[in-house]
Amino acid sequence: MRVRIVSFAVLVALIVVVGACRPAAPPPPPPELTPMVQGTLNQVMRGILFPNSNIVFDAQDRDPGAPPDANDPAASAHPFAGTYGGWEAVENAAMAMYEASNIITLPGRTCQNGKPVPLNDATYQKGVLALREASLATYQAAKDKKQDAMLDISDKLTQACATCHDVYRDKIVNGQPAGLDARCTP
Predict the structure, then answer these.
(1) Do the Cβ atoms of 77 and 145 come closer than 8 Å?
(2) Residue 20: pLDDT band with limits 50, 70, 90
(3) How buried is residue 31: exposed, middle or buried, by Cβ count under 10 Å (0-12/13-18/19+)?
(4) Which of 30, 35, 89, 116 is the most exposed place for a label (fewest CB within 10 A)?
(5) Would you report the helix, strand and coil content of the chain in percent, each value rounded to 5?
(6) For the chain, how long is the longest CA-to-CA vector?
(7) Regarding predicted confidence, which is higher, 29 or 77?
(8) CB 28 within 8 A of CB 40
(9) What is the pLDDT of residues 58-106, one digit of tens each?
């Protein structure tokens, strides 16, 4: 009889414990991360595209895989000489330019003069697509360590940039530079 009482008491205790152990509510979902625009198009160009395109342009004349010149006092500061230097620096520059092509298409970004970036203009879209193509070509050439391809790639990159710069940045009106107020206006 005593065994039955102990067994019954254990069973009741188990039922109470199991009943009290409800599954925890699932954690709330993390907040949705939405893209946020902060800088102007000019700031993105100068902060991301300009320095990274210069790495690509430099690879035309300077072999990223070559050891740094010991007689050059500035060699240690060169992008090809750092921890992520050499051809990896060119690969990273290519990816930064590609990703920047996404950043410059985010709605809400303005130009330096406060006008909205002309996202829906065909010329702007053509320039962004050309930037993406040049970036991917750069990436592949860097992965393959093909310095001889960098001249052609640099030309493609220059043309991609000129697609927009000629229309939106360096506009000439009546033989004169149109100035800052005309930027981002086709």
Answers:
(1) no
(2) low
(3) exposed
(4) 30
(5) 55, 5, 40
(6) 110
(7) 29
(8) no
(9) 999 999 988 877 777 776 677 777 778 899 999 999 999 999 999 999 9
